[in-house]
From TrEMBL, chains A, B:
In-chain residues carrying the UniProt-annotated modification N6-(pyridoxal phosphate)lysine: K250
Cofactor(s) needed: pyridoxal 5'-phosphate
UniProt-listed Pfam families: Pyridoxal_deC
Record InterPro entries: Aromatic_deC, PyrdxlP-dep_de-COase, PyrdxlP-dep_Trfase, PyrdxlP-dep_Trfase_major, PyrdxlP-dep_Trfase_small, Pyridoxal-P_BS
Keyword Hydrolase: no
Protein name as it appears in the record: Aromatic-L-amino-acid decarboxylase
Sequence similarity: Belongs to the group II decarboxylase family.
């Protein structure tokens, strides 16, 4: 413990600090940490139902509860209808990989049935995202063997930063079909990493259906907000998609890792990911009858499976819907406060409408300052603020311009931390613009 | 906590119980649990070096220490030579997927350079395992888009349960080349799941080199034993392979999940898995210079990365090489004790030589009993023993015959638990063979 304090802690970036406003917050709670602790001590390997029945059941229960909070259609709930359900994975990327594999194999089977063989068809399967979709999507496409040239990047609208499904997506899919490609998978994002833009899920699903493509919704961060009725409309249309993932380790007080994936039909996953069940992993009871739910190993890339469901179960059971909603609303209120200050301040502009708890702002070009100089001032502002160690910001680029990201929501954050950060930002900007001026700006930091 | 005790705990299979002899043990320790607890509380998202420098550095350090314990060649150590290094993943399957992707893309690039394009070549890449390789290997091959018909299953020797590289592997690869396939990847296993067989790594590497195929060593379980000099010879030849993975969450007292992957050249991973580095993830210091080590996100499927290195660092720092070796040796001694009793007993036979802490035994067909009846007696023995709740065994099939697996090594196990299990097995067998006889045997349990 002495070495830990002396050698490790000083080299950390403290994601748990209330002065952390970079990336997205990794929220946490006593219930989640206790859940992780107990899971680590029990240490079951829940690859099959038989290997740890309660581990599988708790995971299925937690997923169903969260699906209810999100008002997902019953089709996604393992304990309601027939075929739906889900699995808790480590990252959104894994959720993309397993659904991509399922969509890929389904497309190959369909093509094979129509043409008497799927040989050589893989390079002709096309997948679709936007220039605002997380870069991990194109990486996931590469992992499952799609041809990089068949992974389409649809331009997001300049105003909305989201996709115009009926226009661009449909046009792109039709053009691909005309040139012999097979539209296979669309990734829609609810709350993009850069600016929290929201793709129109329903419209995308309608277009994709015409072409038989799988629609996956990545709601990693903003999905957390959708447990509040006032944000739920961002998921409208989800009843027509094939799968959706969101990560309670981002905004729902559950420590890493916990990415929930729901699919309308788990058989579409297990068709591709069923492990061949060697003798030591078969699932039969003493009478030789199959027992238990779908084995978790058959809905993921690996075999071993940590007991991630426990912490999510404990978070929901401990705090309940109302406390979780209150937590989201408190973060959003703090972000609104920061947004109002930035919007009303002569030195700043808010670049895109704030939807959740992320404020995207920049130095406003004024008094003869060029856009380029405003970008430079923003870079210098971030560098100086981050060097103080009293607040940590990140940046992105929107429409070619540098934009600062102020992400509220670190678990210990209170209004006073947001106010202090605002004052630090304001004072530092004053130093830059009134003091040394842009002439004093040093090299960029990102 | 009350609900946990009432509703979850009774439904668990207690992997931490000293009476657990099924599958492979998931060993654990106070240091590992403390490490997981602290990592959960700090909760950094170590996707890039900049996002949590100490998280990346501790992981690299822990991997290097473990590589030293295993006497891996310096080429695999990130802090020694230039290009080597590793990453801690969740499962062996992920280690297979990332190395398969790297090998796949390298083969496609080579083929493209030689033929002016890689189009359509993917279905012709061939990968090789044996009928004793874990089934997750063929699943990993499917995930990365290899054609299932190009994933070869080499028959393992009936005696050794391992591959004859110079004969079968070489012959199979040559035949594939002759028919236009491209040998791309070989998975060698040190300690197969079924019987702990060990493939000859050096011989496989020599053959694979002739064909330019990537060799990966899966030492998930038995790699743990190789920290003891008396077992290290099982890794002979590792200096000629491309990558090796082993899981301290199996035998090195580190709770789930912790699979260590080392590669000779990390650039071969990052060539395929480099995330495109959106603006919010670039790694430059205030002067715009690149900083830090390889980002962990670029050696794995996902982006988010738990602080898994901490628990492994704490396990090694707390117990040291000698205590870890002592733990392995104590388990092996207990397995030897069980093996001797089974071998010397008229009712049992030991089916394959015990190499580590797994004993594969079965009821010996005697006194007019057929092989089939011996299998049935074994099934009934396992069913009755498992129903007592006083010991938990698993089974496998070797050479068409049912074999019981007695895996020693659950963390709390002592000689008395092994003795009790032996006595229970002995008494139950007596009941079956002398009492009700095989006529009383009920349905099979696996």
């Amino acid at each position: 413990m002495e070495e830990l304090r002396a050698a490790v802690v000083p080299g950390m970036v403290h994601w748990a600090s209330p002065n952390f406003f970079a990336f997205f917050p990794a929220t946490n709670s006593a219930a989640a940490i206790a859940g992780e602790l107990i899971a680590s001590a029990m240490n079951p390997v829940g690859f099959t139902w038989l290997a740890a029945p309660a581990a599988t059941e708790v995971e299925a229960l937690a997923l169903d509860w969260l699906a209810q909070l999100l008002r997902l259609p019953p089709a996604f709930m393992g304990r309601h209808c027939g075929a739906g359900g889900g699995v808790i994975l480590g990252t959104t990327s894994e959720a993309m990989v397993v659904t991509l594999v399922a969509a890929r194999d389904a497309a190959l089977r369909r093509a094979a049935a129509g043409r008497g063989g799927s040989g050589g068809l893989l390079p002709r399967l096309a997948a679709y995202g936007t220039d605002q979709t997380h870069s991990t999507f194109s990486k996931a496409c590469r992992v499952v063997g799609l041809d990089p040239s068949s992974v389409r990047t649809i331009p997001a609208g300049a105003e909305t930063q989201c996709i115009n499904a009926h226009c661009y997506l449909k046009h792109c899919m039709q053009a691909d079909v005309d040139s012999g490609l097979v539209p296979t998978y669309v990734c829609a994002t609810v709350g993009t990493t850069s600016t929290n833009a929201v793709d129109p899920i329903g419209a995308i699903a309608d277009v994709a259906r015409e072409f038989g493509a799988w629609v996956h919704v990545d709601a990693a961060y903003a999905g957390g907000a959708c447990i509040c009725p006032e944000f739920r409309h961002h998921l409208d249309g989800v009843e027509r998609v094939d799968s959706i993932s969101m990560s309670p380790h981002k905004w729902l007080l559950t420590c890493l890792d916990c990415t929930c994936l729901w699919v309308r039909d788990t058989r579409r996953l297990t068709d591709s990911l069923l492990d061949t069940n060697p003798v030591y992993l078969v699932k039969k009871d003493a009478a030789g009858e199959p027992v238990g739910s779908t084995d978790l190993k058959d809905m993921q890339v690996g075999i071993g499976h940590r007991f991630r469901g426990l912490k999510l179960w404990m978070v929901m059971r401990t705090y309940g819907a109302s406390k979780l909603q209150q937590h989201i609303r408190s973060d959003v209120a703090m972000a609104k406060m920061f947004e109002a200050r930035a919007r009303d301040d002569e030195w700043f502009e808010v670049v895109v409408p704030r939807r959740f708890a992320l404020v995207c702002f920049r130095v406003r070009p004024r008094g003869g300052m060029t856009e380029q100089e405003a970008d430079e001032a923003g870079r210098e502002l971030m560098a100086r603020v981050n060097r103080t160690g009293k607040a940590f910001l990140a940046s992105t680029v929107v429409g070619g311009r540098l934009v600062l990201r102020f992400a509220v929501g670190s678990t210990l954050q209170e209004q006073r931390h947001v106010r202090s950060a605002w004052e630090l930002i304001k004072k530092t900007t004053a130093d830059i613009l009134q003091g040394a001026g842009t002439a004093g700006i040093q090299g960029p930091i990102h």
